[in-house]
Specification:
Low-confidence stretches: 106-114, 315-320
Strand order of the largest sheet: 3-4-2-1-5-6
Radius of gyration: 26 Å
Shape: elongated
CATH topology of the largest domain: Rossmann fold
Number of strands: 18
Strand content: 15-25%
Amino acid sequence: MTRGKRIYVLDTNVLMHDPTALFRFEEHDVFLPMTVLEELDAAKKGTSEVSRNVRQVSRFINELIEQGNGKSIEQGLELRLPKTLQLKRGAQVGRLHFQTQNFAPINGAAAKKKGVPDNLILASIVDLREQRPEVPVVLVSKDINLRIKASIYGITAEDYENDRALDDFSLLYKGYNELPANFWEKHSEVRSWSERGHTFYEIKLKKDEAWVAQEFVYLPGEDEIEMRVLRVVDGKATLQIIDDYRGSHAVWGVHARNREQNFALNALMDPEVDFVTLLGTAGTGKTLLALAAGLAQTMDQQRYREIIMTRATVPVGEDIGFLPGTEEEKMTPWMGALTDNLEVLATPQEGGAWGRQATNDLLASRIKIRAMNFMRGRTFLSRYLIIDEAQNLTSKQMKTLITRAGPGTKIVCLGNVEQIDTPYLTETTSGLTYAVDRFKSWQHSAHITLRRGERSRLADYASEML
């Protein structure tokens, strides 16, 4: 092995999370303990995302063995990229090694004890270090407890970070920016015009103004103004004064209560924006705003045929298949936040109980609840799709959902990265963070980070003091 080369030992959860992890370590070697292969074999059956990933890992390994043309596996398999994998090509590659001695199967009675597979992986690393003392060995795992155990044994351990959307979550794109007080003085050459009831400005960007399309900008104070960047071409930005949904304008009876909610409603109501992400803590109004905009554009403007609501079903106890009934009835326990907000929006001004029932029946005919488990292979035409709890999705799952969109469909992703329930996902590796970062420069997408809670003074005080 060349100087500076390392051996990375991959835990099972890394491959379950990202099947392409085998090829992500450039010129360094990869080592798979027999315990990892046993655990992959035990998880290969099923229709879950994990099972699909496990089967893909098996196909990758089998393809590498076939590429070896009968060469000794003990010498290691060259980690040449499969033709189906679109990663960086041409770089130096390492070799894939397997544990070929001192291993025990994990299907015995002792293996059923908690933590035994982890201990077997650690034991294989100790053996590997004894066999190759001249090469640094690093354990890569998304399991914090295993990394703690490894540190106790004196084994270098790292988290798998190749799937990070960004290094620091605080650097995530917010979707809006405050303008300096001397903004108009800095831009003396401004072209303005009015068209279809809207006012537009064209300005030449300064070096410190790195704006992107669909970013919101505002100037607070006496000369308060809120605008949206429509496009940036050749160093010039076109700005539009946005609608004010805090005053006379309303969306299905809902008014914006703060600046960020006003930005969100403008993005949700714009037919030119196909993809909207709303990120914020509980009580910031994400679900209410998304539903109100969906109802206004589906029921009043007839822009979409129906609203489809779904969410990542991360069960605390039983899974979705345990519940009786149809797909929609199975999803009902997970859709509490959506149904609560729907009750607020479905309350008519007149008609009493009869009016409420008629309104509920009408909305139910245009709102469908669908399980995310069965989205693969579907295409949605002219639909308004709301994905709740999107922080629990991986980047691959997010891609699967967004690519379901057909012509005329709008997708709205809602989430709170402080409440991630999925194992091995963090703020920087969540599919929602990934989508915000990758879509921020696309002119048909918008993102808003909602910061202020609007539930009640009790909820606000509790969030601060408890």
